[in-house]
């Protein structure tokens, strides 16, 4: 077995800003507390993809465990500036205000079909203005 890799070969795809709605809660369920947040829109800017987030095309379902561990489950759709639709789904963890996730991309548009072949990595944070992520493709 070879020596462990200490860096990931990645390529920056885009920065996304998500506008979000008011959260709703289901407290003390069998898997802890669920926090649901609608994605009401947003922007996508970067070297590989530019566009907007379709309003209400998805949301974030956060699971908060009894020990405080937080897991995210997000879905959204990007409308690119040149007319393509890209579905994005990712799961990840929230820790200390920082989100780390593994996005997957789905599209039938020939210009972006290459995205279907990559595992993504995302790093994000939330503020009063919404949620911001940097998305990368693992090469």
Describe this protein's structure.
- With about 140 residues, the protein is mostly beta strands.
- It has one domain (about 10-139): Porin (Beta Barrel).
- About 0% of the residues lie in helices and about 65% in strands.
- It has no helices and 11 strands.
- The protein has strands at about 10-20, 25-30, 30-45, 50-55, 60-65, 70-80, 85-95, 100, 105, 120-125, 130-139.
- Strands 1, 2, 3, 4, 5, 6, 7, 8, 9, 10 and 11 form an 11-stranded antiparallel β-sheet that branches.
- A hairpin with a 2-residue loop joins β2 and β3.
- The protein is globular and about 45 Å long.
Tags for this entry?
11 strands, Porin, 63% strand, 11-stranded antiparallel beta sheet, 139 residues, mainly beta, single chain
The general outline is globular
Q: How many domains, in number, for the residues?
A: 1
Please state the CA-atom Rg, rounded to the nearest Å.
Answer: 16 Å
Strand content: over 45%
| SSE pattern, N- to C-terminal | EEEEEEEEEEE
Integer average pLDDT: 95
Helical content (DSSP H or I, runs of 4+):
under 10%
Count of β-strands: 11
Distinct helical segment count: 0
CATH architecture: Beta Barrel
- The secondary-structure class comes to mainly beta
N- and C-termini, Cα separation? 21 Å
Short description:
This protein has 139 residues and is an all-beta fold.
Please render the helix and strand layout as text.
Blueprint: E1 10-20, E2 24-29, E3 32-45, E4 51-53, E5 58-64, E6 70-80, E7 85-95, E8 98-101, E9 104-106, E10 120-127, E11 130-138
Antiparallel strand pairs: 1-3, 1-11, 2-3, 3-4, 3-5, 4-6, 5-6, 6-7, 7-8, 7-9, 8-10, 10-11
């Amino acid at each position: 077995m070879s020596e462990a890799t200490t860096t990931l070969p990645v390529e920056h795809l885009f920065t996304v800003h998500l506008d979000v709605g008011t959260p709703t809660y289901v407290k003390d369920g069998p898997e802890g507390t669920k926090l649901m947040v609608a994605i009401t829109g947003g922007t996508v800017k970067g070297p590989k993809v530019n566009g907007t987030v379709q309003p209400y095309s998805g949301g974030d379902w956060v699971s908060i465990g009894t020990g405080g561990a937080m897991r995210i489950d997000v879905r959204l759709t990007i409308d690119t500036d040149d007319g393509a639709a890209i579905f994005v789904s990712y799961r990840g963890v929230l820790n200390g205000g920082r989100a780390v996730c593994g996005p997957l991309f789905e599209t039938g548009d020939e210009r972006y079909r290459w995205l279907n072949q990559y595992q993504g990595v995302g790093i994000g944070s939330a503020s009063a203005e919404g949620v911001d992520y940097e998305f990368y493709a693992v090469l």
